[in-house]
Amino acid sequence: MVALVRAPLFVPADRPERFAKAAASGADAVILDLEDAVAPAGKDAARKALDASFTDLPVLVRINAHGTPWHDRDVAAVAALPVAAVVLPKAEDAETCGIVAGATGRPVIALVESAAGLARARAIAAADGVARLAFGSIDFCADLGCEHLREVLLPARSELVLASRLAGLPGPLDGVTVQLDDPSFTRDDARHACAMGMTGKLCIHPAQVAEVRAAFAPTPAQVDWARRVLASGEGAASVDGAMVDEPVRIRARAILAQAD
């Protein structure tokens, strides 16, 4: 279930009146956020408001990072709920990811947001209980003191894709797009992430969901190409004037699986 998520939508966990609205947005999962979206004074109330009964969609919970005053209570709260996964922010080592997975009994989406996390991304991806990586690009840039630009973040995104592949995980979830007044920003960011091998993108506003889902879905032209490639038989062949062999057919099968 966690592997299939493409456009999960964050909602502050201290705003339960928004939970059902988030589920009705078209998102394929809802992330109840105990971390950045909730002020320190509201952490306890947000934890008490956690609920997974408002939707049949996967419900994820982003807890507070290891080492914060709220982490242990968040872990205990998640363990008592039928949620699909726990999102662990500031993921920087495999051991902590494994501990959280074991304590909650839930798969972990490890949110890599720092230089230390990126340096250990391959170990984190291979840790027991980790089901997926995600990129916290805003925090990552703050940690490194770099600009939030595609060319700057290219090595980081590439490493997360590679770490996921080596661990046998689905491609990672890309970080959020903070520009909310123009959907083209989200669309372009999502297409870029998809082209790099990421398989989904975190959303912070309902208006972003449709753009993300469209970006990670094959186009009709791609589906048509994939079908013609697989219909070309075995061995070397030509489709649209280009050579087709088994590596190309692997890509075609992936496109049709994604379309399904």
Task: Give the tags.
single chain, 260 residues, alpha/beta, TIM Barrel, 2 domains, two-stranded parallel sheet, globular
How would you explain this protein's 3D organization?
By secondary structure, this protein is an alpha/beta fold. The protein folds into two domains: 2-217, Alpha-Beta Barrel (TIM Barrel); 221-259, no CATH class. The chain is 45% helix and 15% strand. It has helices spanning 19-23, 43-49, 71-79, 94-104, 115-119, 121-125, 137-144, 150-166, 183-196, 206-215, 220-230, 246-259; strands at 8-12, 29-33, 59-62, 85-88, 108-112, 130-135, 173-174, 200-201, 237-239, 242-244. The strands form three sheets. A six-stranded parallel β-sheet has the order 1-2-3-4-5-6. A hairpin with a 2-residue loop joins strand 9 (237-239) and strand 10. Helix 9 (183-196) packs parallel to helix 10 (206-215). The model has no long low-confidence stretch (mean pLDDT 94).
In short:
By secondary structure, the chain is of the alpha/beta class. Helix content is 45%, strand content 15%. The chain folds into two domains: 2-217, Phosphoenolpyruvate-binding domains (TIM Barrel), CATH 3.20.20.60; 221-259, no CATH class.
What integer value in Å does the Rg equal? Answer: 19 Å
Spans of 5+ residues with little confidence (pLDDT < 50)? none
- Just give the CATH class of the largest domain: Alpha Beta
Number of domains: 2
What would you give as the CATH superfamily of the largest domain? Phosphoenolpyruvate-binding domains
In CATH terms, what is the architecture of the largest domain? Alpha-Beta Barrel
- Neighbour order of strands in the largest sheet: 1-2-3-4-5-6
Strand/helix succession: EHEHEHEHEHHEHHEHEHHEEH
Distance between the termini: 14 Å
Give the fraction of residues assigned to helices. 40-55%
Q: What is the CATH topology classification name of the largest domain? A: TIM Barrel
User: Strand tally, please?
Assistant: 10
Shape: globular
User: Main sheet, how many strands, which sense, barrel?
Assistant: 6 strands, parallel
Determine the structural class based on helices, strands and strand pairing. alpha/beta
- Count the helices. How many? 12
User: Please, what is the average pLDDT?
Assistant: 94
Percent of sequence in beta strands: 15-25%
